[in-house]
Amino acid sequence: MRFATKLCLLVLMIARVVSAAPLEHDLGKGLVYFRITEATPGLPQLDANRSAVLDLRYTGPRAVAEKALTDWLQRQATPQAPVF
Which domain holds residue 80? Predict the structure, then answer.
């Protein structure tokens, strides 16, 4: 019984760490998709000439600070590499 409990706790801890990373998919043709969740620590870094889709549907109202998101968009979004 103790082994099963420890195993369950270990699996839950590993799942929590894995889910903390932003989900990223290469959509092709220089477009990348990022899903940001409650557990994601910060916003992703983009290559200078890649466009991005930033999915904020799974965040709460305080998961990404408005100022941090505004600053990130100003740094990352360019006419050559927009953020959607």
Answer: 21-84
Rounded CA gap, 47 and 55, in Å? 18
Residue 60 to residue 76: CA distance in whole angstroms: 22
The total number of residues shown for the chain amounts to 84
- For the four alpha carbons of 79, 81, 83 and 84, in that order, the dihedral sign comes to positive
* Better-predicted residue by pLDDT, 14 or 48: 48
Q: How many domains does the chain fold into? A: 1
19-64 residue pLDDT tens: 445 577 778 888 888 887 766 667 777 777 778 888 888 777 766 7
What's the token pair of residue 50?
A: 């890649």
